[in-house]
Design goal:
Elements: H1 4-11, H2 14-21, E1 47-51, E2 58-62, E3 68-69, H3 71-78, H4 87-97, H5 122-125, E4 133-138, H6 145-155, H7 161-166, E5 169-178, E6 184-187, E7 197-201, E8 204-209, E9 228-232, E10 253-256, H8 259-267, E11 273-275, H9 285-294, E12 298-301, H10 306-319, E13 322-323, H11 333-339, H12 342-358, H13 365-373, H14 376-387, E14 388-393, E15 398-403, E16 411-412, H15 415-424, H16 431-438, E17 444-446, H17 448-454, H18 467-472, E18 475-477, H19 482-504, E19 513-517, H20 525-531, E20 541-542, H21 550-559, E21 562-565, H22 575-582, E22 586-589, E23 598-601, E24 605-610, E25 625-633, H23 638-657, H24 666-676, H25 684-692, E26 693-695, E27 702-704, H26 706-717, H27 725-734, E28 739-744, E29 748-757
Parallel strand pairs: 10-11, 10-12, 12-13, 14-17, 19-24, 19-25, 20-21, 21-24
Antiparallel strand pairs: 1-2, 2-3, 4-5, 5-6, 5-7, 7-8, 8-9, 14-15, 15-16, 18-25, 22-23, 26-29, 27-29, 28-29
Length: 760
């Protein structure tokens, strides 16, 4: 059975229980009130969270609803449980929701009741405004039951894993975000045996749950599911399949009703397909211009129902896009291929192409294109194309420009100066028109960090020279043995490879930070950390992350190649935040001048330095920090800069040879954990436990609970030292004490430790 003490020990205290429900809560920051989680309408924050002076326990009170109590009462009230009569169920609920992994006797899952009777269902959430935070976890390519069911669902339409990969469609196992109402929402699809897909377009995502009958699988765990959208932050300009279109001129381009139809057609050999996500969405002028540059034949094949037929007619009347009509025995393209062959569909396509060619040349197509080309917008675009180069920096999300005379001199676009230039050359246009042009497909995308590494392609090999080893030799360790130097070189090399992988692969991140430690000052620790960023990418180095501002901190993860945690010991109060950064693969954020949020992949890797050798605290993921105590750093001259460039080139080459070569092997990870102990700050509880107690057995020792041990040591040291129950539990585990369940007639079954008391 799960106990209250187990929960508190596992999560790190009552503060973290509260923070799970109130993400903005921070016990170190004084804040008058928080927005109540017990009411959707709380425009003026009315919930107080405070520490009770008598007991030191965190308490809350929601003044507009009357809810009050401790952290466990907050959970109970939020999920509609009785904290007294259903406390056992409450503990199991916390264990499940926070994924604590504590053992429980119950096999069935606790299904919490919502305290809001009129909250939207999962189906309704999909069409709401984008959330403030988003976390998505994807299923790996495993042989689990739900993964096989996921592939079975898609294979019925001819869509295999290669097609899903082509269109960047992934299986979702977990989704969570905070809605605009302030409520935290989470969906554990894997645990519920649900088939859920995420469609990715232009850095944005749509999470889709298809309708599947219970009879689709004989497995008793699968209960069927209804169609719904769990989350969506894509906008009307996101076109599914556009980037997957073949290069060069095409015979035709086919509009399909949805993503499933698009992939099904592709899987059956029809690669010239796109989807506007909905039959009700009309193509933009920019999209049509792109497609017209590839082909003169635009077709659509929408669902065989009234909505699909109306949308097809509108496309033909407005844009000259000819409809390919499906036979009456099928609903859509995906169903078509269950009853008909690829050759049959090719006949439908051929007939559609003939219809396009039979339409009078001046009836729709050329007339519309000529009309568009004569607009003010088209003339302005033509002038700008002749005078300037434009690009969108996808890292900073800023638009940059250069002149045709100096094509390599790029600077941020100044819209006002651009309008002045247009005015001087006889173009009268407002800022809205210029901004509209700059935000269209007219401006190409550019990734400066990827471009830096891709420039190494085709370079001649440097033979057997190990430039990463040369780079490592600039750092002199305090204990400069062969094994220690090899340890430093290995982790520097693997950190650099992981940094490259983080840039190029979505979801693959550098989970470890490289930390230089020394009690000596002014020996170049901070300078070497800055030096690790290549000169070309210095714009994407952040040496002062703003931890207090969550939005700015999140943006830093997608805008910087290297984040330097300088003077790391001064950031100990924010160590949990930094630990979260190190393990965060995706960031959901609305960037400046954008209407919608995007889901972006983190590209940042972390380095740091500190004057405090024992900067680590227990329980904070010490294996995330790869730390080295250094003695000095050699002078970094021009040759060192050359070696740095070649070292990054070497890291990129090693990444290309084996994408996973930067990951730590099991023995390397174990060595890291062992070596990290020298950088740990021993708590008072740890030192006192080792001084007064020794691990023992049932036959030779005395059974004591964590509370018993705390009282025993507290009596010895007196009240001048205040001990913490949670830290006592952590210290016992670190010192080798084994936690067991033991019962006697007086006290019943309890969790505790067998110990021997040392002579006091």
């Amino acid at each position: 059975m799960i106990t209250k003490e187990q929960i508190l020990e596992k999560v790190g205290g009552e503060e973290y229980l509260i923070r799970y429900l109130v993400p903005t809560f921070n016990s170190n920051v004084r804040k008058k009130n928080y927005k109540s989680i017990f009411s959707e309408k709380d425009d003026r924050p009315s919930m107080s969270i405070y520490k009770e002076k008598r007991t030191g326990t965190l308490k809350f009170k929601s003044f507009n609803t009357g809810h009050q109590g401790d952290a466990f009462r907050m959970w109970a009230d939020y999920y509609g449980l009785d904290c007294k009569t259903q406390f056992k169920e409450l503990l199991e609920l916390i264990n499940q929701e926070m994924c604590l992994g504590l053992n429980t006797e119950k096999k069935s899952r606790v299904v919490p009741k919502s305290i809001f009777p009129n909250l939207p269902t999962v189906k309704d959430i999909g069409v709401s405004s984008p959330s403030q935070t988003l976390r998505i976890e994807y299923m790996s390519d495993s042989e689990s039951f739900i993964s096989r069911l996921y592939l079975k669902y898609w294979l019925q339409y001819g869509i295999d894993q290669s097609v899903l990969g082509k269109f960047d469609v992934k299986q979702v196992s977990f989704l969570s975000y905070t809605a605009n109402s302030g409520r935290y929402l989470s969906f554990k699809y894997f645990e519920k045996h649900q088939v859920v897909s995420a469609y990715h377009v232009s850095g944005r995502v749509k999470v889709y749950i298809p309708e599947i009958s219970p009879s689709f699988s004989s497995d008793p765990f699968f209960k069927g599911q209804k169609k719904s959208f769990s989350y969506k932050n894509q906008n009307k300009d996101d076109v599914f399949g556009l980037v997957q279109l073949p290069e060069g001129n095409l015979d035709y381009v086919l509009f399909t009703a949805g993503e499933k139809d698009c992939m099904s057609a592709y899987a059956h050999g029809f690669s010239n397909v796109i989807s506007l996500q909905s039959e009700h969405q009309m193509p933009s002028d920019d999209l049509l211009r792109i497609l017209r540059s590839k082909t003169s034949v635009l077709l659509c094949c929408y669902d065989n129902d009234e909505a699909g037929k109306n949308a097809s007619k509108k496309l033909q009347d407005s844009f000259g896009i000819v409809s390919v009509e499906l036979p009456g025995d099928v609903k859509d393209i995906a169903e078509y291929f269950k009853k008909h062959t690829t050759a049959d569909f090719q006949l439908l396509i051929d007939y559609g192409i003939q219809q396009v060619k039979s339409i009078s040349v001046n009836s729709i197509d050329i007339h519309r294109v000529r009309k568009l080309s004569n607009t003010k917008r088209s003339k302005v675009k033509a002038y700008l194309s002749n005078k300037f180069n434009f690009r969108l920096n996808v890292v900073t999300q800023e638009r940059e420009m250069s002149t045709k005379r100096n094509p390599d001199l790029w600077e941020k676009v100044n819209v006002n100066e651009l309008r002045d230039n247009l005015d001087r050359h006889g173009f009268e246009c407002n800022l809205d028109l210029i901004n509209c042009i700059l935000k269209s497909f007219f401006v190409g995308r550019f990734n400066p960090i990827e471009s830096y590494f891709l420039a190494f392609e085709g370079n001649e090999s440097s033979g057997n020279e190990d430039y990463i080893h040369k780079l490592a030799s600039y750092v002199n360790l305090k204990d400069s043995t062969f094994n220690n130097n090899q340890y430093w070189y290995t982790h520097l090399k693997k950190w650099m490879i992981r940094a490259v992988r983080t840039v190029f692969e979505d979801g693959e991140i550098n989970k470890h930070a490289l930390i230089l430690c020394s009690s000596k000052e002014n020996i170049g620790k901070s300078y070497f950390c800055r030096f690790l960023c290549p000169p070309t990418l210095r714009r994407y180095y952040n040496g002062n992350p703003i931890i207090s501002n969550e939005k700015d901190a999140q943006k830093a993860l997608i805008r910087n190649f290297i984040i330097d945690l300088d003077e790391l010991h001064q950031l100990r109060s924010n160590s949990e935040v930094i630990k979260t950064w190190l393990s965060q693969p995706y960031i959901n954020v609305r960037l400046p001048y954008q209407e919608d949020e995007i889901t972006a992949s983190r590209i940042a890797s972390f380095v740091g330095s500190t004057n405090n050798i024992e900067f680590l605290r227990s329980g904070l993921g010490n294996s995330r920090w790869i730390s080295f105590e250094i003695d000095s750093i050699n002078y970094l001259d021009d040759e060192a800069i050359y070696i740095l460039e070649k070292a990054w080139e070497q890291a990129y080459s090693l990444y290309k040879l084996d994408h996973g070569s930067g990951e730590l092997r099991e023995e390397e990870f174990l060595e890291l954990k062992t070596r990290s102990n020298q950088f740990n700050t021993k708590s008072t509880e740890s030192e006192l436990i080792v001084q007064y107690l020794y691990p023992s057995t049932k036959e030779e020792g005395e059974f004591m609970t964590t509370t018993d041990i705390l009282r025993y040591i507290q009596n010895i040291v007196g009240t001048t030292i205040r001990l913490n129950t949670r830290l006592v539990g952590s210290a016992l585990r670190e010192s080798g004490f084994i936690r067991v369940m033991y019962g006697n007639l007086d006290r019943g079954p309890l969790y505790g430790y067998f110990v021997q008391k040392l002579n006091v």
